[in-house]
Amino acid sequence: xxxxxxxxxxxxxxxxxxxxxxxxxxxxxxxxxxxxxxxxxxxxxxxxxxxxxxxxxxxxxxxxxxxxxxxxxxxxxxxxxxxxxxxxxxxx
Length: 92
Description:
With 92 residues, this protein is an all-beta fold. It is 0% helix and 16% strand. It is built from no helices and four strands. It has strands spanning 2-3, 9-10, 50-54, 61-66. Strand 3 (50-54) and strand 4 (61-66) form a beta hairpin. The termini are far apart.
């Protein structure tokens, strides 16, 4: 869900394989309403150092916690090229 100006939430539905880019500071929540499993990939650059949680009704911040750094999945030489959808390999 995405808040509209004035604080009202807006729900967006994305089809499988679709992307949604969110601006800096956008409060959002991801929900899988289907019976099939779903994956949500969040990519932040620069990496987050804290994560703020919000009240679902008022959207007021409730708590902020530090984000523990994780080991990168790809090495530094891979770059964004390997992640871009245009460069994905499709299995025969």
